[in-house]
Write a structure and sequence with these properties.
This protein is an all-alpha fold. The protein folds into two domains: 49 residues; 44 residues, no CATH class. The protein is built from three helices and no strands. The radius of gyration is 24 Å and the shape is elongated. The model has no long low-confidence stretch (mean pLDDT 89).
């Protein structure tokens, strides 16, 4: 019975290796996403730490919306990014 058990286990090795590779790739993607989110949180924390005498809360929200639009956009062949100001204002709660 041990030989049969070992044969079944050996037959499962390719599927298990494939599952392991998929899991490792997913972990890598999630770690990258996690690092990006931590970086964004640190940036927001630094932005919120700016005194209101220097930058109003409204300006902070607008700047965050503009940065989010910039980072989410794809640069054109000249490396420029198009940001639609009405969308930024809408996201920031401005008219």
């Amino acid at each position: 019975m041990t030989a049969h058990t070992n044969a079944v286990e050996l037959a499962q090795v390719p599927a298990l290796m494939a599952a392991l590779n998929r899991a490792q790739e997913r972990i890598h993607v999630l770690e990258h996403e996690n690092n990006q989110l931590h970086q964004e949180i640190r940036w927001i924390d630094r932005l919120l730490a700016v005194p209101a005498s220097i930058m109003s809360p409204s300006h902070k929200v607008t700047l965050r919306a503009a940065m989010k639009a910039y980072l989410g956009a794809t640069p054109n062949e000249e490396g420029m990014v198009s940001i639609e100001s009405w969308k930024v204002c809408n996201q920031a709660g401005h008219s």
